[in-house]
Amino acid sequence: MIVELISVGTELLLGNIVNTNTQFLAEQCALLGLSMYHQVTVGDNRERLSEAIRTALGRSDVVILTGGLGPTEDDLTKETCAEVMGFAITEDPHTKERIKEYFKNSIFKVIPDNNWKQAMVPEGAVVLDNDNGTAPGLILEKEGKAAILLPGPPGELYPMFKKQVFPYLAKRQPEILRSQMVKICGVGESQVEDKLLDLIDRQTNPTIATYAKTGEVHLRITARAKSEEEAKKLIKPAVKEIKNRFGDNVYSVREEETLEMAVVRLLQKYELTVTTAESCTGGLLAGRLVNVPGASEVFREGFITYSNKAKRKYLDVSKSTLKKYGAVSSETAREMAIGGVFAADCDVCVAVTGIAGPDGGTEDKPVGLVYIATYMKEKVTVKKFRFKGNREKVREQAVVRALDLLRRSILEQYK
User: Fold this and answer.
1) What does 129-157 look like in DSSP terms, one character per residue?
2) Residues of CATH 3.40.980.10 domain(s) within the chain?
3) DSSP per residue, 79-90
4) CATH class of 259-413
């Protein structure tokens, strides 16, 4: 079954509002196994909206329209859709009573006259009660096609969709779509695709899609089936094969788990405490870790040692090392990591020092040069990186690589 989304509102075209509804609805439709080929945004203009609805109904089984159900004159979705599909507009006593109750229980005791417009519905439409506002949702069915009209505010749309529209669409859709994410770090998107080319070339069901993230590649394995259990059986061997090919580069197979969550999970599993020693990242690494619920169990403290003086004072980096090799060097990163463990009295430290730019680079030490080190159980690991991009991008990539090095150091100790 094919579904299409139409977002209505001039404010969306102008960029005054971020359209989070489209992402939410696309995800929900994917869960239902619906095929989606088009998403359209149209302003508050009857003629252009009519054209968008006609086009969508011509190429889709279900059209979901969001926005334009309010009480003002430029709210045209209901009237325009009814006109295109040939429905007369009539008053719905049930909706009128709900509007009365809504205002009765609000701070506004007087009901504006234009709100009664929301009690007017296409004759024969399925009315979806709005528990969080005055505009009801509507389902218009004709000749095997369906138009679903939903209010624009996310606080009204999300619960209405989950409670009333999702079950409606599930009954119309004989198959479901289920996905599982495989998250990889330390391998570029082109490398990932190259290693999976044979699987991708012969894919039918399930399918594999790659998504490039900063320092990461996410793979979404999606199966179409008649039941969730059947979909899981289709996905399982594909996930197993990917894990076999990428080994420790795979840090998670959980949709909601971030890299920092995976790191904190490992620290908790092996009852380890950690500290961070940062120069060019200036606390971003520590921030990523402490964003994870439960991080207080494993995170001791973080050191931001931007200057050489701070590196010497807090991490006991030797003056001779800084003078001979410089702040951005494998030697300094090594001493930062060792010094962090002793300063915080913890099990492991991850240290970062580099040149984020845009200034400060030289021929020997260009902008983007970063050294990352870990010290754990008397073993030091130091990695050299050369990141591309602006200052923000360099720092962001350094944080991802630092988290990944910490993760790998833990795995290596406990293999």
Assistant:
1) --TTSSPPEEEEEETTEEEEEE-SSHHHH
2) 2-172
3) HHHHHHHT--EE
4) alpha beta
For residues 140-168, one letter each, b for 16 or more C-beta atoms within 10 angstroms of the residue's C-beta and e for the rest, the string is beeeeebbbbbbbbeebbbebbeebbeeb
pLDDT tens digits, 235-266: 999 999 999 999 999 999 999 999 999 999 99
State the DSSP string of 154-217: HHHHHHHIIIIIHHHHHHH-S-EEEEEEEEEESS-HHHHHHHTHHHHHT--SSEEEEEEETTEE
Query: Measuring CA to CA, how many Å separate 57 from each of 35, 54, 137?
Result: 14, 5, 18
For CATH 3.30.70.2860, list the domain ranges present in the chain: 176-252
Q: How many residues does the chain have?
A: 415
pTM, entire model: 0.78
**CATH says 2-172 is which class?**
alpha beta
CA contacts within 13 A on the Cβ side of 401? 25
Cβ-contact 265, 274 below 8 angstroms: no
- Residue-wise pLDDT tens digits, 117-132: 899 999 999 999 999 9
Residue range(s) of every CATH 3.90.950.20 domain in the chain: 259-413
Phi, psi of 380 (to 5 degrees): -105, 135
Cβ atoms < 10 Å from Cβ of 392: 11
| Residue 63 identity (one-letter amino acid) | V
User: Residues 300, 306, 308, CA angle at the centre, nearest 5°?
Assistant: 110
CATH number of 176-252, picked from 3.40.630.10, 3.20.20.10, 3.10.530.10, 3.30.70.2860: 3.30.70.2860
pLDDT per residue as tens digits for the range 133-164: 899 999 999 999 999 999 999 999 999 999 99
Given a contact cutoff of 8 angstroms between Cβ atoms, the answer to whether 198 and 192 are in contact is no
What are the distances in angstroms from CA 251 to CA 87, 183, 185, 264, 381?
54, 6, 7, 12, 19
Residue 314, judged by CB atoms within 10 A of its CB (0-12, 13-18, 19+), counts as middle
Tokens 């594999």 identify what position? 208
Beta carbons within 10 angstroms of residue 14's beta carbon: 9
Which residues touch 206 (CB under 8 Å, ≥6 apart)?
A: 221, 222, 223, 224, 234, 235, 238
Residue 368 gets which letter from DSSP?
Answer: T
